[in-house]
Each structure stands twice: as C-alpha cells, then as structure tokens.
Here is the input.
Amino acid sequence: MKKLMTGNEAIARGVYEAGITFAAAYPGTPSTEILENVALYKDDIVAEWAPNEKVAFESALGASIAGARTFASMKQVGVNVAADPMFSFSYTGVNGGFVMVSADEPGIHSSQTEQDNRYYAKFAKLAMLEPSDSGEAKEMVKEAVKISEEFDTIALIRMTTRVCHSKSIVELNERCNVPLKNYTKNINKYATMPAISMKLRVKVEDRMKKLEKFSNETPLNYIEWNDKKIGVISSGVAYQYAKEVFGDTVSYLKLGFTYPLPMDKIKSFADEVDTLYVIEELEPFIEEQIKANGIDCIGKDKIPNVGELNPHIIRKNILDKENDSLDTDANKLIPRPPTLCAGCPHRGVFYELGKRKNIMVTGDIGCYGLGALPPLSSVDTIICMGASVSAGHGAAKVYRNNNSDKKVVSVIGDSTFFHSGMTGLLDVAYNQSNTVTIILDNRITGMTGHQDHPGTGITAQGQETLEADIEVIVKALGIRNVKTINPLRLNEMKEALDWALDLNEPSVIITRWPCALKRRTEKEKNEFGSRFDICKVNESICIGCKKCLSTGCPALSFNLEDKKAVINENMCLGCEICSQVCPVNAIDTIK
Ligand code: SF4
Ligand code: SF4
Ligand code: SF4
Here is the structure.
C-alpha cells in the first residue's frame, strides 16, 4: 500500500517496520512529530518522552545493550545535549541495532543556532545516512538498523526541516519482528574505563575502514549518468533542489550514506565529468573531504553556507538565472513580530518584570523568548535550554562580589525546568547566589505543540502516570523560599516579586496556569475552571491612553478614529491582564 507521508511520519513508519521496540525523544522542532507518530504503534513499541535528549539517548542505549532494536530522535541542538553518551556509546558499540535522528534546522526558524550535525558523525565516528524524501527516510531506518548491528555502531540519520515536513509517497511494508538479542555481561565492551576505552578506540578505527568499504559498495550511494560536462554530488534535500534546477542535463552522484564518504566512488565519478559541483545545504561537509582527497570541485564558493537552500539559490548562483517573480511593495507589508498568544499565562509575568528597574532577566528557550520582544521587552539573555538558571547564578555572583545592588531574575518553563533547569537550581542553592527563579508552569511543553512531560501526569502514549510536583522538587533542591501564585493576578505577581527581590537568599516563584491553547484535563478543569470569559472595552469610559496595548496582547488594537481601544472578541480569553492595567477601569469582563 502507498501513502502520502511527511518525512517525520515516514521515519516513524520505518521504526515500526524495522522491528524497533523501544524509542525515546525530547520534543523539538523539526523532530517532534517523529516520536508522536512512533507512539501510535502502542502494541509493538514503547515510546517515551524523556525529560531531555541525554536521558532519551541513554535510555535507548540501555535498551540496545539489553538486546532490543532501539531508536532516539531529537532536533539539532538536542544532539548537543545528548553528545556525552553519544560519544561513549560510539566506542562501546551496540547490541540491538541503535538508530538516532538528528533533525537539523537550516534557517533557524525556531532554534538558537543553525548547525550542521553531519560533523557529529565525523567527530563521534558514527555511520550516517541522509534521506532526500519520505520514501527514502522510511527505508533508511531499516537500512540503518541493519548497518548498526552489522558494524556495531550507532547509525545516525540526519534530516533537515524540508525533509522532515514535506510529504511524498511511501510504500508501506510489514513489520519485521526480530527476537531480542542475547545480552551477556561484557565489561570489555560496555564499560568505558580508560584501559578498556583505549582498546575500543582502536576498534572504532577498524570499524570506520569497514564502513568506508561499505559506503563505496552500497546502493545508497548511486550514480545517474547524463551529460558528463557537469557532474553534481549532492545529498539530502539539496539533491532534490539540484534535480529541480538541472533535471536530466547533468550527471549526479547521489549520496544517501554520507559518513564515511565513498571516496573511491567519488574519485571515479569526478574523473568522468568536466566540471564537478558539490551542492549541499549548510556547511561544506562533503566538499571539504573531497578537496582533502585532492579532487577539484566547486561548492561553497557558489552555494552559501548560511540559511536554507532552495532551487532559486542554486539557479541564480550556478546558472546566473533568476526565477520569474511578482513585484511587491515591501513598504505596504505590516511587520508582525512573534508575540505571546491572547490569554497567555506568561503575559502578566513579563509585564511586571518589564516594569522593574535594576534587574537582569536571564531567559530561556520556548515561549519565554517572546518576553524579550517589544512591548514587553523584559528579558536580557536567551542562550540555550536550561541556561537561564545557571547563567543567572553566575551573573548574580558577579554583581554581589562587586557590591552591585543589581538583582538577577531567571525565567524558565516547566518542561525546560525538568529538561535541564533542575541542576542549575541545585547550583544556585549549593553555591548560594541570591537569584529569583520564576518557573512558568503552563502545564505542558508549549511552543513545540503540547507534548506531555513529567509534570503533566500523562505519558507519550496517553497513560496516566506520576505527576512530578515542582514545588516539592524545588524544596528538595535546597530552596527555602518558594511561592506558587496565579500569574493572571498582577497584584499576586507584583507582591511575589517584591518579596523575592527583598530576600538575601535564593527564591523560587512558581506561576501555575495552563497555556491558553491547552485542552484542559478533567483534573485541570477542577483546578482552573473549564470556561473562558471575554473582556470588552467600555468606550464611554476609555480615555484612549493605550496603556492596555503595552501588554502586547494580540486581541487588543486601537481605533485611530474614535481614539479608543478595541478587543477582538474572537481572540480574547478573558484573562483580565489588560483590565488590571487600565487606569480608569474601562475594560469589563462579560461572563
Ligand atoms: S503557546 Fe501557550 S504558553 Fe506559549 S505563548 Fe501561546 S499561550 Fe503562551
Ligand atoms: S483579557 Fe485582555 S489581555 Fe486578556 S486575552 Fe482578552 S484582550 Fe488579551
Ligand atoms: S488602558 Fe483603558 S483607557 Fe487606556 S486605552 Fe486601554 S481601555 Fe482605554
């Protein structure tokens, strides 16, 4: 049977067909839908959201050592988090086949960095595959699990956004059920102590030579001969773009297995063509290795290494031809910066923080980043997941040691707190910095699309489970000053901030209210209510001061003719933040 699937759905199908029985991930664009779809195969696969990528990777590697075919997926920055066990597991090798996906995000649509994780394959000495479409993505999971078992290696599948999210035809096959492999205790393989690691290190080099031979022989790397004046070497989605631009007018070496590279195959292809182009998205990963082997080629001198690639860039930079396009007047386009949703429980937190003077706010990844933008403009730094608490700790120590009265407030979400905020907070307690940490508990992993986490009480496969209590954890980490408040009440937020900023000890404020877009569970309906109200501007009272607009709620606008604020009733959720800000009580709640 054939089906139209995204690359992420196809990877999940490949996980099913490959006989994988354990999968773990932490959500992150553009990888999130992979585990969401793996989780649907409830009868055959255990699929789990882990608190972070390192834990996802480690639980999958444990399952592999126990003998099961296993899988872990993450976004590109997630691999940075999982890198520690990844490097060690590369030395030990696997028992059951182990496949991991790095979903890279050229163009940085929702990440901190644009990174080409193919270099991880070279750095950690892994086998790597790069699909160009959904059909290949599914088949490559099956190939990857076999390569992993045959060569005793992690098999990394490197995807990029367009392969993850574009749809193409996938041929569905049966699941191959493989028995659990026998596990026998073997510390010479699985215990990376220095004397053992040194021997494993030699084994890894031998494995890489075998993998290069495989790379030269596998049909995953194949040549399409056409005119030999131009030869194109390409991989991943860049191959699709090159085909769109050149069609059948040039010859191709299509690389599906991209580490180690098939250097013999590349040399014989290069010998046959007059001019050789290497077309790849982001860094010159293939080009550098080709040039290091003394083969002349054109690559990044024509194709940029910044941002997403597309056929237009290839056409313009190699053929010097422009696409036909419509003219638009850019001045007529209204810029729309990203903003917190109407009714977002974080709005009041950032509104109150924005009013404070003499504080540094260390922010974190997720919807909290929106607090950095105007009109709220209350966040100073966003570095990486979990860094708000530890960065805040370092900054606070410097201020205190230099007799500065500047205070530091660290802002982090609930999912992020479980991901990597807890250790930072332990550092705050242990090394005693006087920071205020605000944990914005919106009861879900918000920005990636509402995945559950240890604080929600629901697993990736929908079962009820332990609901981790943030307040209990915070106290157990050594913080004595803890308050849980309703962030929709600005006076509660203000009083909590006054209290925390006056202390000479570390403190934590937990703001507990569900994300405005979240479907509330029965338990949450009991705690937070089940219905939303609407707010309305009473025009006879409104003095047109625009103070309500400073909350940045997208449901609010201003009528220039009447000089009155207006609330879009279709967007408003009646959170009442704007009405608490209005100096003349011109905003009423309609029950
Ligand atoms: S998704 Fe939820 S938490 Fe994020 S901005 Fe929107 S309402 Fe706020
Ligand atoms: S009550 Fe005000 S701030 Fe809240 S959603 Fe409605 S318009 Fe926005
Ligand atoms: S804050 Fe109140 S008075 Fe000022 S514009 Fe908004 S609704 Fe009108």
